[in-house]
Design brief:
Layout (H helix, E strand, L loop, with lengths): L1 E18 L2 E18 L3 E5 L6 H8 L7 E6 L2 E2 L6 H7 E4 L12 H11 L4 H14 L15 H13 L5 E5 L7 H18 L2 E5 L3 H4 L4 E6 L2 E6 L1 H4 L3 H6 L6 H11 L11 H14 L1
Parallel strand pairs: 3-8, 3-9, 6-7, 7-8
Antiparallel strand pairs: 1-2, 1-4, 4-5, 9-10
Length: 288
């Protein structure tokens, strides 16, 4: 079943530009007739250089912006329809780059309760949701702590718990690890993977970290508002030159395999992890 479906999705906005003669307005096409489908329960990554339109696409899923042209359905709800906005936002939660922008209370458990309270959820159910959400992200022992005293990775997990407490079927992560150190990044990615694999939650990850994207089931690449590539990580990342032409990196081991292949060494091009590289090299040695 489809969780998200975009059909000829376009979004245009007006940018005000300062000139020597004053200001002028310029139309910017952030998304250009994008078509894609994301199945329920899947984990997809959306890639693109800065300004490519990937974050604009993410905001459409939560109806923070709405199409200029075309249609975006979230869990069957048309995001263009004002009367369906509540249903859209209950279906798809959103976690942003900076967790401080999503933390609203001075105590962790009060922060998690904020969303359900605004939804009119009964008190007993809120108590249950707070504990379940904090357990899901491994932060239950911190429920009485002050969010401002937590690490960046812990804050981001609290932000995720706050979204989980509202019981969405899908969570959109807009570069959630961009401000974190390697330990925080790992904690957040482990949480995201667990939510997908154990809870069956649909995950849309907007990222520029290739080592995060290789863990997705499917990858979409947006360039200047256009959907230019889609496929599994093993289908997309071996296209090294194409990805670089779009201003993107590839996983280091994939690029290493690509360079070895260019040197005439018979090695697979779709290597994505260090473990796969070690296995491939061991196979090479056994054939020498």
């Amino acid at each position: 079943m489809e969780m998200i479906k975009a059909e000829n999705l376009s979004y245009e906005y007006i940018k005000v530009i300062e000139t020597e003669k004053g200001t002028k307005q310029e139309k910017i096409l952030a998304l250009n007739h994008v078509n894609l489908t994301i199945e329920k329960g899947s984990f997809v990554a959306v890639l693109g250089h800065n300004g490519s339109g990937k974050s604009t696409f993410a905001k459409h899923i939560n109806a923070l912006v709405r199409p200029t042209e075309g249609v975006l359905w979230v869990n069957g709800y048309d995001t263009q329809k004002e009367e369906l906005l509540w249903d859209v936002r209950q279906s798809a939660g959103m976690v942003f780059q900076n967790p401080d922008n999503q933390l609203v209370a001075t105590v962790v458990e009060e922060d998690i309760a904020f969303g359900p309270e605004n939804m009119g959820v009964p008190s007993e159910e809120i108590r249950k949701r707070v504990d379940e959400s904090l357990s899901a992200v491994g932060m239950l022992e911190y429920k009485e702590h002050t969010p401002s005293k937590l690490s960046g990775g812990q804050k981001q997990r609290i932000a995720i718990a706050g979204v989980l407490a509202m019981k969405p079927e899908c969570i959109v992560f807009d570069e959630p690890t961009a401000m974190l150190d390697p330990v925080g990044r790992k904690d957040v990615m482990d949480t995201i993977l667990r939510l997908n694999r154990e809870e069956g939650m649909t995950i849309v990850l907007i990222t520029h970290y290739m080592d995060e994207a290789v863990r997705a089931e499917k990858v979409f690449v947006i360039d200047d508002g256009n959907m230019v590539l889609e496929g599994t990580p093993k289908e997309v990342f071996p296209q090294v030159e194409t990805l670089k032409s779009y201003g993107l990196d590839v996983p280091q081991v994939t690029e290493t395999a690509y360079e070895l292949k260019k040197m005439g060494i018979p090695i697979a091009e779709d290597i994505l992890t260090i473990e796969e590289m070690v296995g491939a090299i061991c196979q090479l040695k056994s054939t020498i």
